[in-house]
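Q&A log
Question type: sequence-to-structure
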Amino acid sequence: MTYRVGHHSTSDDSTAYRSKEEMDDWAQNDDPLTRARVHLEMLGEWDSDQEAEMLTAYRKECIKCLQKAVGQKMPPIEQLFTDVYDDVPWHLEEQQANLMGHLDKYSTEYKLDEYANPDDYTDWRYQ
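Response status: OK
Response body:
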């Protein structure tokens, strides 16, 4: 069994329903990745050299992905409201309408061309 140490998202403050001390304790004393690594080391299936090699390879891959992402347009603004829910709650529909109205009225104040057009956008997670 594992324990989610962090928040679900930027809109979730999990300290509202559990203490920071509880999260810190789990992160320091019962991290599942650390437990798995120690177990594999005890079996002789993993060592610090393999760990360093893997981390270096993953770091390079992450940098490559970040460089690719930097060259692309940001997701459509509408995804601020549609990315989480299948059925968007009424209050978020209202907020989206307010935002889109604001952006229409003050479009020259924003770099809207940096965002993809919703009709032309394919979310990489679903390719």
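Response note: Helices lie at 20-29, 32-43, 48-70, 79-82, 90-105.
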